[in-house]
Design a protein that fits this description.
about 325 residues, alpha+beta, Beta-Lactamase, Alpha-Beta Plaits, 5-stranded antiparallel sheet, 5-stranded mixed sheet, 11 helices, 12 strands
């Protein structure tokens, strides 16, 4: 008795405290009885009934949770209580008034003198605000993922366009020198595996400086575009590459091709340009634009230095010019 007086706690004061907590507490409290037919509510405080008015004396737990999205979760909590014979905590996610809710629930076992769990005291704390915050964060993350994916796609497209631009001649729209150098190196490496041959052609518009001087640079740019289109139309395969080598010079790479194939492409290009009849008012060779070409064909395995391979075609082109232009020469 003296000890109770020292602490200021009596059975009556404790009863009053728990009664006030039960009646006025903000968190739901309830007591369930463990019956052969399952758990049955024997008492629920006002806070519990505000959450779900069906939580009244005599209500069966299995009926109360039937409308939960995950009804087995709450039932499993009571099964844990029975098997572990100790206080357990878990989450439950009911839908109340068509809105998802989140509660953190605690069950405390109540035992008889024989140690049998006859009742369970339950308490829940509403964590819905955290669920809402989590859902909002999830929605933001999903939206951010969509934005990131869209921006990544845009960046990939932009990088692809940039890559294409970096490998394309801006004036003619065909491959540029950088693209040609890479493609030539790749093809030599690939063809070397089975000793395939490679044809490299250099072509030059005859007397192009005179053409620019007489008709102007705008006309010269247009002439370069038309010649590029002629060359593009002259190659038979998608694996063949037409490139602007520099100035008025063009290069053609014909993978896995012999001399005859290279001669056919050059002859076709020259004939097509002749048929186009693009006037050249100051050419000592012809009244129209013409082309000179140098052809180099080698087994890829014999190409040691790409520069030497290109130089052979360049020398053959020089011989064509020396011989009067508007013709092709095959390198020895």
């Amino acid at each position: 008795m003296a000890e109770q007086e020292d602490h200021g706690l009596t059975s009556e004061s404790l009863f009053t405290f728990f009664r006030e907590l039960w009646e006025h507490g903000l968190d739901p409290f309830w007591v369930c009885e463990n019956t052969p037919a399952g758990w049955v509510i024997v008492a629920a405080n006002p806070a519990a009934q505000r959450v779900d008015p069906r939580q009244k004396k005599g209500a069966r737990l299995v009926h109360l949770v039937a409308h939960f999205p995950e009804p087995d979760c709450l039932i499993a909590g009571y099964e844990r209580l029975l098997s572990e014979r100790r206080t357990v905590t878990f989450e439950q996610r009911p839908v109340i008034d068509d809105l998802p809710r989140l509660f953190e629930t605690m069950l405390v076992p109540i035992m008889d003198a024989a140690g049998n769990i006859t009742h369970a005291w339950g308490m829940s704390r509403d964590r819905t605000k955290y669920l809402n915050a989590y859902n909002e964060l999830q929605a933001i993350n999903e939206r951010m993922d969509e934005i990131i994916q869209a921006k990544t796609k845009e960046l990939e497209v932009a990088n692809q366009k940039l890559s294409e631009l970096s490998l394309t001649d801006a004036l003619t729209g065909i491959a540029n020198r950088r693209h040609m150098d890479k493609y030539l190196a790749d093809e030599v490496r690939k063809l070397s595996r089975h000793s395939g041959s490679l044809a490299f052609i250099l072509m030059d518009i005859d007397h192009f400086k005179r053409y620019n001087d007489s008709l102007g640079h705008l006309a010269g740019d247009e002439a370069l575009r038309r010649v590029a289109a002629v060359l593009n139309a002259s190659v038979p395969r998608s694996s063949d590459l037409i490139a602007r080598y520099g100035g008025e010079e063009f290069a053609i790479i014909l993978p896995d091709s012999a001399v005859q194939a290279a001669v056919h492409v050059v002859s076709r290009a020259m004939d097509t340009l002749s048929d186009a009849a693009i006037p050249h008012p100051d050419s000592p060779t012809s009244k129209y634009l013409t082309l000179s070409a140098g052809i180099s064909v080698k087994s890829a395995s014999d190409i040691v230095q790409l520069e030497d391979f290109i130089l052979e075609a360049d020398r053959a082109l020089y011989l064509s010019k020396q011989a009067g232009r508007n013709r092709y020469t095959i390198a020895d």
